Amino acid sequence: MNPPRPDEFKPPPECPVFEPSWEEFADPYAFINKIRPIAEKTGICKVRPPPGWQPPFACDVEKLHFVPRIQRLNELEAQTRVKLNFFDQIAKFWDLQGCTLKIPHVERKLLDLYKLNKLVAEEGGFDIVCQERRWTKIAVQMGFAPGKAIGSHLRTHYEKILYPYNLFQSGANLLVSSCVQRPVESKKAEESEDVKEQAPAMTPPDSNVRRHKRLKTEVSVDPRTTESNTETGGIMQNRLIGLSAVLRCYSLIRNVPHFYICDSCHLQSAACSAVVQVDLVVCLVCGSGGDEDRLLLCDGCDDSYHTFCLIPPLHDVPKGDWRCPKCLAQLCNKPHDAFGFEQAFRDYSLRAFGQMADAFKSDYFNMPVHMVPTELVEKEFWRLVGAIDEDVTVEYGADIASKEFGSGFPIPNRRFKVTPADEKYLKCGWNLNNLAMMNRSVLTHVTADICGMTLPWLYVGMCFSSFCWHIEDHWSYSINYLHWGEPKTWYGAPGFAAEQLEEVMKKLAPELFDSQPDLLHQLVTIMNPNTLMAHGVPIYRTNQCAGEFVVTFPRAYHSGFNQGFNFAEAVNFCTVDWMPLGRQCVDHYRSLNRYNVFSHDEMVCNMASKAESLDVVLASAVHKDMVLMIREEQELRDRGVVLCKEAKYDNLQDDERQCVKCKTTCYLSALTCPCSPGVLVCLHHLDQLWKTVFNQRQLPRQGYDLFPMMHAAKERAQLYDDWAVRVTETLEAKLEKKRGLPVFRALLAESESKLFPENDLLRRLRLFTQDAEKCSTVAQQLLNGKRQTSGKSRSQLTVEELRSFVRQLYNLSCSLPQAPQLKELLNRIEDFQQHSEKVLSDEVPSVAEIQGLLEVSFDFDMDLPELPRLRVRLEQARWLEAVQQESGQPKTLTLDSMRRLIDQGVGLGPHPSVEKAMARLQELLTVSEHWEDKAVSLLKARPPHSIETLSGAAEKASGIPAHLPNCLLLKDAMRKAREWLQEAEELQASGSVPMVDSLSDTVLRGQAIQVHLEPLDQLETLLSEVQDWKEEAASAFLMCSYVSYGKVTDCVFLNQLATLEELRLREMEAFFNLRATNESKLLPTTDCMDLKVCVCQKPPMGAMLQCELCRDAFHRACLPDLTEKAQPWLCTRCRRSAKPPLAKIISLLASLERLRVRLPEGDALSYVLERTVDWQQRTQHVLCDVLKFEERAGTPPTLTRWAPGNTEAPNNTQVRNIARLDTFT
């Protein structure tokens, strides 16, 4: 997972989310009043209706057409807009100078000119930064790494781009206009070339080079005017000297080449020529018409200036239009138009807008709209609003009047037909068409229908479309319902932080508020919540999903944006607690010269005129508001109003009775003047209408008599006020004046019977009564000694808490009968604590006594600090008993038992007896583990240890009083080793020849014993020699098997003599079958392509060879080692069937006799050798008879060998000895 970027948006904490029950949901005003103490701390909250509350969407989709607003995201954010405005101004400045602004790159990043300009200004300006060499510091503040000479680059860019602009802003460049008196000539162009480096780093547009204009004429001069001209020339010379001094001073400060006034600037004396050349187009700075190629003509006023006479001087003649300093000041200092949203050119239907919105989001994120995470959209939104170089534009269908197109909620007598199941939504309080005008709402007394306040507004959003930071009109509540679509993300700040938020935004973007003081009321500016939070403003957020409400509280700033295409509806409402805030808001609007949506005074008077029908709490609030209103009105009238007359405002629209100064809607009174018909001012701004004539003021006022209405409201509220006085006295009673809990219950019952609405006093009474009842219940439980034995355990009071609780009971405003009894319980608990301390201080406590104290503690439903100590002491005693019991039985005391006891002992509290037992156990465990590990190492040692070494270790381990498995294994290994050695000695002492199986079993048992056994090596060597003999015998008798056609199997020694003839017969039968099969392959009737011959198993082709024995055919190409010989040719498989020579058999039997081990294979060889020798003897007798016969017949004698590889036949004695090798004593 990639780490977040330092500038990545971090979501603020979530606002409260409420899920009312159906009972709570029945009355929206009661529920909002209930959650207000919690929700107003965050400014906004979210309300999820109960499951199943789903009103039908009643808006006429086909009729709904709207023109959305265009929102450029990076123009919404305050700080980003300030930067954009700065770039626009500086670009306009250089454009009017005939140059195009190009923002330079530093370290491969665009240079932030706004930040550079701001940092230099904070450090004191360009000159101070240069003098004190602070450019490196500024480079570090801008985020560049130190030590790369970035400061010098920043200075160069500032000097070329920003310094001329700052001179213009300060008015220093207008100095040239104030110094012009008479035309003078300047020096030659080559003298001004030193100022070329002061030109801005701009690229002029590709237009024709601006041409200068100059006209010369001849003028006749009267000689009589020479004297006066001379005087004038002297004055001019003095002025030019002053100008030169000013320019030289400027050049010293700027550290640029000096500006010089040439000698031709000084006027000649009276002896000058009568006819002179006069330049009619001259530089207004130096007064000279020379250096024509450096003379600029303003495209605004046609004034002329040398390029080197300007402050700062220009590098070259600009291309394109150019404005002089005076025209530049006039054009750049024009007031900016107030920022606002443009209207789109297209009229959308709801369906067309949805298609456009979904296509935009899908294309932007390159994924389906429903798969884009809300967190990704949120981070991308705040990245875009802060990005200067990314211009993303969206559209927002905001403030669509529901009166014209219909509400999303069903309304009676509309085109939308409601099903019987949905008729409940027509009169539901959460239907926004009903909420604002319910009886509990103060806005019901506003006579006019106000779109957006008393009539809902509709909002059709798309991805990134936003609503900026704002407060609702008149600081009222607002409620927003999202009918359908993708979520809407909200941010809110509590009402108490409103002024703090305004101050932070003014501090961070003062340029915007200088031109628009009421900027935050225009709903066109946002600021990153992370920025506000960094300056201490509490911000909270939430995602409003379809079917959810979001409620904003009075003076709570809120903003947000849409995650995608959605449809929402919003309306305002006001409760009784809003009344004081509403009057404060009117005063706030007056200070900002902001229009009122409605007249607060008119609303209050309307309520007071119907005082008999008002709710008692509302009547009380109206009475208090009227007292303030009448007092303020009287004070303002006493400031000098002398003439009054009544007037009727009922027939006037609000905009016809607004103060021309503060835009407040006048209702109680207003000032007019005959000389300014139709102009009204409020009493706060009477000086705006007349300055000096005070006795001609006229004061129109309404015909209402305020005092009777105020008294009517007071009488209506008297019942509630009397109850409120009694509640206040009861809550503030002290000592013996305290009332019992029934009095509080009676006051609550009275408020319910007389339908007093929910307010702070009633909530305070209810909360105090609930607390008192809880205290009474807890006190009674403590007195009864009841303990909770089932379900979830509850926390118990500590002794200190009980003392505090007793003090709390005596400090309550009501008196509880349980207080004295609880005091007595506290005394009993203190006695128990003293006894427990005495028992715990004993060196050897009694288990019975501890258990007795624990049984007594069950009578107290308290958290006593002595109880854990008593339980710990009891566990210590039980543990010591377990240790003593385990130590008394060493055969069952295992390592696990010792570890378990030690683990149990570690969890016990510290005590001397426990520590001693722990030390003994730990020592025994350490010794036992040591010998266990040593036994394992001895048993696993390679090579194994001798029996003497292991015997000594086993004797030492036997003295440990514990059960050690590895030591027991060591003892068992010693026993087995002794038994094996005894068996080996008996085998050697007997002198008999053992069978190989018996020998192998003895070796295997000896190898399993983990003790070094000296005879074992000899037996292993003997067994290895036996194995080598068997392998040699097997290789000698390896022969071909013809049992399976085409396959060769290893030769097998006959384990039993009776199977030899059977095997021979089977082999011969298989051989003859193979020979017949191979011969049948080569019959003429067989298809040659189906044959598989040779080792390659391919059809016969070319020259073929046939084995004389198996009659199989082979390709000559497959026989690379073939040699041409006359004898019959045998294949490789048949050559393997050659029988071993007799000498080899005799050698094998001789080596077996030396091993002195009896093998079944040796018995088989003896049998074969006997038969072979017997056959040789019989053959020799036959041959001898033949020789005798041939000798008698005169045949020459023939030398005949008795066996291959032997030069002489064995005598009969040797054969008999070899034949008897199978007999062992």
TrEMBL record:
It is found in: Nucleus. Residues 216-225 have a biased composition (Basic and acidic residues). Keywords: Chromatin regulator, Dioxygenase, Iron, Metal-binding, Nucleus, Oxidoreductase, Repeat, Zinc, Zinc-finger. It holds the Pfam family zf-C5HC2. It catalyses: N(6),N(6),N(6)-trimethyl-L-lysyl(4)-[histone H3] + 3 2-oxoglutarate + 3 O2 = L-lysyl(4)-[histone H3] + 3 formaldehyde + 3 succinate + 3 CO2. One of its GO terms (molecular function) is DNA binding. Its main location: nucleus. Its cofactor is Fe(2+). GO terms for cellular component: chromatin; nucleus. This is [histone H3]-trimethyl-L-lysine(4) demethylase. It comes from Neogobius melanostomus.
